[in-house]
């Protein structure tokens, strides 16, 4: 898939695998919205990414992916800044037996992100019309 000019949202993008996904997408000339619960780490990561890949190519939105309103905020901020959404990397996740309720709301519920935040469907419909298939990872 040609990635140049595509717009991606990476949940849990402030650290770990999400940060690595963001770097790879930016290297391939995508614009990236890093969406993460950890504001401090998020701000630090986007400063790093802006320095490496350009001020205008990265955005940070603080968000809890288990919160419907936060997901809408991420979608709206990304469209406002970059004009559209082509790729969603649904990466944010947690582990730990003692936090099992939180684990279910973050790891399991977000598998149904299109139902939780129907706005994300829009990019698939748009992309069907314009001949590019949106990507959910
Ligand atoms: N690293 C592995 O070996 C491995 C193996 C299997 C699956 N996974 C899955 O891959 C994903 C990333 O793993 P990782 O090792 O990079 O994890 P990590 O803990 O290093 O990073 C997770 C990121 O998600 C963010 N996050 C946590 N809860 C959030 C929430 N509710 N809303 C928004 N952001 C939130 C954290 O702040 C953090 O920046 C997770 O879903 C994990 O379960 C990882």
TrEMBL record:
This is 15-hydroxyprostaglandin dehydrogenase [NAD(+)]. PANTHER family: 15-HYDROXYPROSTAGLANDIN DEHYDROGENASE [NAD(+)] (PTHR44229). It catalyses: 15-oxo-(5S,6R)-dihydroxy-(7E,9E,11Z)-eicosatrienoate + NADH + H(+) = (5S,6R,15S)-trihydroxy-(7E,9E,11Z)-eicosatrienoate + NAD(+); lipoxin A4 + NAD(+) = 15-oxo-(5S,6R)-dihydroxy-(7E,9E,11Z,13E)-eicosatetraenoate + NADH + H(+); (15S)-hydroxy-(5Z,8Z,11Z,13E)-eicosatetraenoate + NAD(+) = 15-oxo-(5Z,8Z,11Z,13E)-eicosatetraenoate + NADH + H(+); 14-hydroxy-(4Z,7Z,10Z,12E,16Z,19Z)-docosahexaenoate + NAD(+) = 14-oxo-(4Z,7Z,10Z,12E,16Z,19Z)-docosahexaenoate + NADH + H(+). It holds the Pfam family adh_short. Keywords: Oxidoreductase. The gene is LOC106468421. Belongs to the short-chain dehydrogenases/reductases (SDR) family. It comes from the Eukaryota. Its EC number is 1.1.1.141, 1.1.1.232. Catalyzes the NAD-dependent dehydrogenation (oxidation) of a broad array of hydroxylated polyunsaturated fatty acids (mainly eicosanoids and docosanoids, including prostaglandins, lipoxins and resolvins), yielding their corresponding keto (oxo) metabolites. Decreases the levels of the pro-proliferative prostaglandins such as prostaglandin E2 (whose activity is increased in cancer because of an increase in the expression of cyclooxygenase 2) and generates oxo-fatty acid products that can profoundly influence cell function by abrogating pro-inflammatory cytokine expression. It is an enzyme of class 1 (oxidoreductase).
């Amino acid at each position: 898939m040609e990635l140049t000019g595509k717009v991606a949202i990476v949940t849990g993008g402030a650290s770990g695998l999400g940060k690595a996904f963001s770097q790879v997408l930016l290297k391939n000339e995508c614009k990236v919205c890093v969406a993460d619960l950890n504001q401090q780490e998020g701000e630090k990561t986007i400063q790093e990414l802006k320095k490496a890949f350009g001020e205008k190519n990265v955005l940070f939105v603080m968000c809890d992916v288990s919160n419907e309103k936060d997901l809408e905020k991420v979608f709206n901020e990304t469209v406002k800044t970059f004009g559209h959404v082509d790729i969603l990397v649904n990466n944010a996740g947690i582990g730990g037996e003692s936090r099992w309720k939180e684990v279910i709301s973050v790891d399991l519920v977000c598998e149904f992100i299109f139902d939780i935040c129907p706005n994300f469907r829009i990019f698939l419909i748009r992309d069907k019309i314009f001949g590019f298939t949106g990507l959910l990872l």
